[in-house]
Amino acid sequence: MSSILLWLGVGVLGGVGAISRFLIDAVVSGGGGGRFPAGTLVVNLSGALLLGVLVGIALHGDAYLLAGTAVLGSYTTFSTWMFESYRLAEDDDRRLLVANIVLSLVLGVGAAALGRLIGGG
Question: Is the pLDDT of residue 120 over 90?
Answer without folding.
Answer: yes
